[in-house]
Amino acid sequence: MPEAPSENAGELLREGVERLRTSGSESARLDAELLLADAIGVGRTVIVAHVGASVGPDAVARYRASLDRRAAGEPVAYIRGIKEFFGLAFAVDRRALIPRPETERLVELAETELRRRLASRPGEAPRIRVVDVGTGSGAVVVALAVTLRRLDALAAVELLATDVSDDALALARENAVGHAVAEAIQFERSDLLAAGASGDRRPFDVVLANLPYVRHEAVPGLPIAASFEPPLALDGGEDGLEVIERLLGELPEHLGANGLALLEIGADQGHLIVERCGRVLAAGWRCRVETDLAGLPRVARIERA
Ligand SMILES: C[S@@+](CC[C@H](N)C(=O)[O-])C[C@H]1O[C@@H](n2cnc3c(N)ncnc32)[C@H](O)[C@@H]1O
Fold it and tell me: Is pTM beyond 0.70 here?
């Protein structure tokens, strides 16, 4: 059988951009570049710099299969099986939410808090106890563990990650193994903080969570890519804060004296979360909202004074 002629990268990109634009992608050029690079097995910049290079038939077939999936609305991250978060590559698939850039703010704030606690911690003090609630792909806890390893502080911190989804926990474990921090993180299936209370465990010093916060009514209106993600990862109930509100209710039992909870919220939920903290938590708790680089509410900071 005669071999199929090879095609050049520039032509394939044009074909992809046109196909994806027609199907409604708002980032057709970037998507096509990423998918072509992935099909060939090179970085995106190689494609951009070598549009005249010819591409073999196997890679062309892989590229066109990826275009089909993208044109049907599947996110590029699921097609490639990889997403960058906090400068690290995470394996992603339909078992868990694709980590979002907004969530990097949560990791930054957690890092700052842990640096502060580590600096004032006497040598013989017990380890700082941290939990990532609703860990999904493990993005938050793994990024934090890698950061702590760089600071040579991993041994001083006890990391627990929980989720109600066994699928998500399996993916999170894979990411922890991939970044060589699996030994440092305990993964447990748990509804919010329930697992944290088993045995004679101490209360947490730091609670981190990026739980679902999309209003139930708004879920069907999300971009089609979100329909490939687990509904459990997105749907925050009637006002979007139902799961987070339940977590607030668990803080008095599970967060220690001088403890801190950092909870990611939606950009329009700044006032709502402060009102909710006031309603759920008694006097002696402080709640304020940290913004992101765009100045939008992003993380609720809840402290037990
Ligand atoms: C918005 S996703 C975030 C995943 C990950 N933390 C991230 O930032 O990419 C929310 C996660 O919370 C989990 N979740 C939902 N309800 C939960 C509950 N009651 N207890 C524990 N985890 C829950 C979901 O399974 C999902 O993995």
Answer: yes
